[in-house]
Specification:
The structure holds 2 protein chains of 2 kinds. By secondary structure, chain A is mainly α. Chain A has one domain. Helices cover 74% and strands 0% of the residues of chain A. Chain A is built from 12 helices and no strands. In chain A, helix 8 crosses helix 9. Chain A is globular, with a radius of gyration of 21 Å. Chain A starts with a helix and ends with a helix. The relative contact order of chain A is 0.13. The model of chain A has no long low-confidence stretch (mean pLDDT 90). Chain B is α/β, with parallel strands linked by helices. Chain B has 2 domains: 213 residues, 3-Layer(aba) Sandwich (Rossmann fold); 62 residues, Alpha-Beta Plaits. In chain B, the strands form 3 sheets. In chain B, strands 5-6-7-3-8-9 form a 6-stranded mixed β-sheet, with helices on both faces. In chain B, strands 11-12-10-13 form a 4-stranded antiparallel β-sheet. In chain B, a hairpin with a 2-residue loop joins strand 11 and strand 12. Chain B is elongated and about 75 Å long. The chains are: A mainly alpha, B alpha/beta.
Chain lengths: 276, 298
């Protein structure tokens, strides 16, 4: 296992595009986390212009809700797409450069090749989870007046939700990359699916014109985003009448993890059948 | 002698094209085994099958007397078609990946870079290399960790004369150290200079195999004529080195297994009471011989 990770490290260590994308990801992620409160209050100000009783400004960086809020803002589509594109590039590069062939010739098995990419996804997910957890703790401690341990830990299950989200989303990207093998095509189709095709499907299935159902919540990308569904903001609750989640539910994690397992199975089957 | 590779009746079909047709080969330890054939004769397909890059439709093969596995591939160094490396990595880092996959340490990397004359450029990125250097890096990668077998697919393709000479010298050096080498080529001259054994392929089928000295022996042919042409035909068939004859008008064209001196031949017929009215030696080029080999089997 460490051997496969060592090989992956060698492949990315001096790969400029990888580090540029990672850098951009950290910038977008940090900006997303740090600007969330400012953006929401901007929205609140806009709303207040039309409301007789103004809504007070929100604060989102205090314990215990900071876990939920940051897990939400760190997993919006626009931020999640970065690690997904990184994975697509790393997988399809191996086909473009024919290095997957060379890896096989040199004595790697197809299963090992897939495992090395999955291990990389796991490692990226762990690192990002640690990063987001540290960011959450720093923001939480500097914005909460009377901190006690129970408060700090109360909503910490959301960091696990973040981990499941970033892990499964990258597996989806890996699935597209292995099936299409071409960098441009996989990025285009994956982004189209995430931003356009699935949202259209979602609203189509959701509208009661079709029939009463909750199928839309089982769409792959939607099921991933549903793990940390909403930020915990009272205004949203009151104004929009949303029913906020209190915790990361086991079932909500099972759906995207199930999808990921099926996708890994399909990729394994396809690459073991396919000639190189 | 220990068998390194045995291929048993493998076939591979791409749609209508039969790329490999019921091919069997046996490569023994220490041989420099050439797979010779024109473009499209199934050489690369055969090598891709024995390296498990593609699956054959029929047949099987064994490496080192065992079923093929990733462990057997670790004992094989290969150069197949174009050199495939990570373009943004230096040769050293590319070779480190190869070493990791094959479970070797990094200590052999400097040696193979020196052998292939790439040591000076060891830290430049692969994509800055010329084609000749890329090909040499592919050879360096195949040499890593002194493999038991080397597989080379058209190793001198696209190289300049200097590059060709360098690669050939290197192959001969490695062969002299006892490494088994399997080399695919469409160049008869190359196979004859490097190989000890050869299999000739055409449209996926094996035409011949055996020692290079026997299969590719460039025996000369003779044009002969005598008053009694029937007696001449019967008599020439008795010659110990006789292979075949082709009648051409009043003359016959006769092939022999080995080099025969005209005087010797004349004496042979004289002793058999056949008086030749015509005797001329025909020299053939290697290429002509190769084309004849292919033609005879169509």
């Amino acid at each position: 296992m460490t051997k496969l990770l060592r090989i992956e490290f060698k492949k990315i260590l001096t790969y400029k595009i990888f580090w540029i994308l990672v850098g951009l990801y950290f910038i977008f992620l940090s900006a997303g986390i740090l600007m969330a409160e400012f953006m929401i209050n901007n929205m609140v100000d806009n709303m207040n212009r039309h409301l007789p009783i103004p809504v007070p400004h929100v604060a989102i960086y205090f314990f215990p809700w900071v876990w939920q809020n940051i897990a939400f803002f760190a997993t919006i589509r626009y931020v999640l797409i970065f690690p997904a594109i990184v994975i697509i590039i790393l997988v399809t590069n191996e086909y473009t450069f024919k290095t997957i062939r060379q890896n096989m010739i040199n004595g790697m098995s197809k299963a090992e090749f897939l495992n090395s990419k999955l291990l990389l996804i796991l490692l990226i997910s762990v690192i990002m989870t640690i990063f987001v957890a540290i960011a959450t703790l720093i923001l939480g401690f500097s914005n909460t007046a009377d901190v006690n341990l129970a408060m700090v830990l109360e909503k910490s299950s959301f960091i696990f939700g973040f981990f499941v989200t970033i892990l499964t989303f990258q597996v989806f990207a890996l699935f597209f990359a292995f099936l299409m093998r071409n960098t441009g095509l996989s990025i285009a189709i994956f982004t189209l699916y995430v931003f356009i095709i699935e949202p259209i499907l979602y609203y189509f299935l959701k509208s009661p014109i079709v029939f009463e159902n909750n199928i839309s919540t089982y769409l792959p990308v939607n099921s991933v985003l549903r793990v940390t569904e909403y930020p915990s903001i009272q205004v949203l609750k009151q104004v929009m009448g949303l029913n906020l989640q209190n915790t990361v539910s086991f079932w909500a994690c099972c759906i995207p993890l199930g999808y990921a397992a099926v996708m890994i199975g399909i990729v394994y089957w396809v690459i073991s059948k396919r000639d190189l | 002698m220990e068998t390194i590779l045995s291929v048993n009746n493998i076939s591979k079909r791409y749609g209508k094209i039969q790329a490999v047709d019921d091919l069997s080969l046996e490569v023994k330890k220490g041989q420099v085994f050439g797979i010779l054939g024109p473009n499209g004769s199934g050489k690369t397909t055969t090598l891709s099958i024995i390296l498990e890059l593609i699956k054959s439709n029929k047949g099987s093969f064994q490496w080192f007397g065992e079923l093929p596995s990733k462990e057997s591939r670790k004992r094989i160094g290969s150069v197949i078609e174009s050199p495939n490396f990570y373009p943004y990595l230096s040769p050293v880092n590319n070779l480190k990946i190869v070493a990791e996959i094959k479970d070797f340490g990094y200590d052999d990397i400097d040696r193979v870079l020196n052998l292939t004359g790439l040591y000076e450029r060891r830290n430049s990125r692969f994509k800055t290399f010329s084609f000749g250097m890329k090909q040499r890096l592919a050879v360096a990668s195949a040499l890593l960790g002194n493999p038991d077998v080397m597989i080379l697919d058209e190793p001198t393709n696209g190289l300049d004369p200097q590059g060709i000479a360098h690669i050939r010298e290197l192959i001969l050096l490695i062969a002299s150290q006892g490494t088994t080498i399997i080399i695919a080529s469409h160049l008869l001259d190359e196979v004859q200079k490097i190989c000890t054994h050869v299999a000739v392929l055409d449209r996926g089928r094996k035409l011949f195999d055996g020692k290079v000295s026997e299969v590719l022996a460039v025996s000369d042919s003779f044009e002969l004529s005598a008053l009694n042409i029937e007696l001449l035909k019967q008599t020439v068939a008795l010659h110990p080195a006789f292979v075949s004859l082709i009648p051409i008008g009043e003359k016959i064209l006769v092939y022999f297994k080995e080099d025969i001196q005209p005087a010797e031949l004349n004496q042979f017929f004289f002793q058999k009471d056949v008086i030749l009215s015509h005797l001329s030696e025909r020299k053939r080029s290697l290429e002509q011989h190769f084309l004849e080999l292919l033609d005879d089997n169509k």
